[in-house]
Amino acid sequence: MVLNIHEPIEVSAVFTNSRLKPVSFVWNRRHYKIEGITGVYKYLIGVSRCFGYTVKSGGRLYEISLNTGEMMWRLEKIHG
Amino acid sequence: MARTIIHVDMDAYFASIEQRDMPIYRNKPLLVCHTDDLSSYRGVVAAASYEAREYGIKAGTSVLEAKLKLPGAIYIAGNYEKYLYNTRRLVEICEKYTDLVEVYSIDEAFLDITPTIGLFSSAKDAAISLQKEVEGKLRLTCSVGVGPNKLVAKMASEFKKPSGLAVVEPKDLPGILAPLPVDSIPGVGRRMAKHLDAIGIKTIGHLVSAPVEILKRKFGVIGEILSRAAIGVGDSPVVPAYKGMDVKSFGQSLSLGKGSTDIGYLRDVLLGLCDGATRRMRKSGYLGKTVVIYIYLGRLFGLSRQTSIGAYTDLPKQIFDTARGILISLLEERASLDIYPVTKVGVSVTNLVKKESGQQMSVFDLLYEKEAVLTSIVDRLKNKHGEKAITRCSLLEIRN
Asked: Which CATH code fits B250-399?
């Protein structure tokens, strides 16, 4: 089951080993602790550099993205 | 000097990437689909995991057919940005082995290791090392074929999938190739295999025995190419991206699932395809003069027609005006349209020239001056904000 969301979210992230690592996010006023990152990739939207992450939380997988041009995080999809 | 070519073919590429990143999909039948609407039956399967392939589903199967065969499978839309990122990383790995790397498709590459083979104890060792590095760095498996040319290397990578490795030495070629079916030769599809079968040629061995004159008479220049391919002869070079290749055409197509008989809808689809094809032409700096349209009616047959326009162009409206005329004439000719809906529409622009090569101004440039300005603004918006930043109103329904 995949849910397409594409909504802005608030994300707490840390820089570690020259990498950006999201640790938790808030969506619909609910807090989700990120238990693990299972995939990362980079891409461009126009001239904006973007990062896509697949993260685990509460037995589900969430696809979140960061658009560095807009400095905006989004929840893209929920799997599971 | 004998050449040594490696062909790397990623195993069930899109599905494997998703299974790697989404542990909940591992060991399950997963279908990555080329569609925006997974609740519909439109679109085609872009990649099937090995678990799904056991049910006869593979890339190219329609979503409709897949859902009938395997309703319980996991269906997800493809994430091509993610796959392209992985391909770039694959190419980076390949370029450590040689600078002669040709990206053949999003999940395949050829490496000409002839100049660097001395750095490895053997071609097989280079292939094993490459395969291990891909698995270690990308956490994906690939099948690797090694041969004296691209043709044989590509065929060899198919021998043992997934995670296969096959090295074909020139001396072993006749024995290895002879028992294989003719469609093992890259480029020999179902239709060609059927024509060959009709004259008693089922295996590559049969093809070797067939007199080249007969093959030439039956298939023209292709007959001679087939004859050479059957004995494993191929001299096409590995062309790295930086050396560039001559582009022959720009095209785009869309599969319409159950199909449509709505001419307005088909016209809008065609407009979107013309937008897409000409956008890529402008990005690559090409102009084209010949427009080819092809449609599939039901599952039975396809039709194709082409026409040339007055001048070279890269503007969507000019291409679309011509394409629309061809489409309508094709549809009008087919009284059977109501019985057989259009299931696929494709447009291709050929007869290309590089934009820099000093094409002359024509009356068309004046006719389409406003469109040229508008197209240039749309291109700039898309360059800055991405391909989805702006679209035509008439295409909103299709895009959604």
From this structure: 3.30.1490.100
Which residue bears the tokens 């009616």? Answer: B297
Is B13-80 a CATH 2.120.10.10 domain?
no
- B359 or B298: whose pLDDT is higher? B298
Q: How far is CA B130 from CA A24, A77, B97, B139, in A?
A: 37, 34, 8, 13
Query: Cβ of B23 and A61 within 8 Å?
Result: yes
pLDDT at B236: 86
Please report the ipTM that was assigned to this predicted complex: 0.94
- Per-residue pLDDT band for B101 (boundaries 50, 70, 90) equals very high
Chain A: residue nearest B379 by CA?
A46
For chain A, list residues with pLDDT below 50: none
The region of weakest confidence among A46-50, B234-238, B315-319, B336-340 is: B336-340
Residues of A in contact with B21 (CB under 8 A): 38-39, 54
Q: How many beta-carbon contacts under 8 Å exist across A and B?
A: 49
User: Could you confirm whether domain B174-230 is CATH 1.10.150.20?
Assistant: yes
**Interchain CB distance below 8 Å, A48 and B86:** no
